[in-house]
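User: Quick sanity check before I run a bigger batch. Here is a single chain. Can you write out its predicted 3D structure?
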Amino acid sequence: MSKRLESKYKIDRRLGVNLWGRAKSPVNRREYGPGQHGQRRKKPSDFGLQLMAKQKLKGYYANIGERQFRRIYQEAVRRRGDTGENLIQLLERRLDAVVYRMKFAPTPFAARQIINHGHILVNGKRLNIASYRVKDGDTIEVRQKAKQFAIILESVASGERDIPEYVQVDTGALKGTFVRAPNLADVPYPVTMEPNLVVEYYSR
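Assistant: Done. Predicted structure follows.
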């Protein structure tokens, strides 16, 4: 069984941050980790900081598996420009990330499930691959029979987060366009992400 299926709140507690900025996160009540030794103060090493940065980024995108995440990193290295920025752009082009940004799902985990169940159209065609890389100008739409799903309607109506400017969304039609890949500064992460440390981790 994939480790990505573990509770998202376990991920929050293990990393000690409210990774998705959700009101129900246990980190809102206590910031230390789980277990009887969770309150011990630990000063992480350079390796520990790099590992934490990688785990935060992997966890945020619905706990991507290590093998898949490493492939995305290797693609970022091959591209011209800053590897850290390339990594963020590739992650934000994932279909599950775009569905989450458009607020068609309350969490990246829910976005992946909605896609896997065939409720999302890309350029008018049903697509059930969460890791599909969205291109500039692609239209993403909730399938007609899913437009009354409570989880989708509640997510769109939620004031918990805003829609970033690199996607355009018609919330009434539950349809949007991916305008462009964002820079790190454009992405509305609730916590500080440090892709430069992820690059250092894999460059060891």
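The radius of gyration is 17 Å.

User: Great, the batch can go ahead then.
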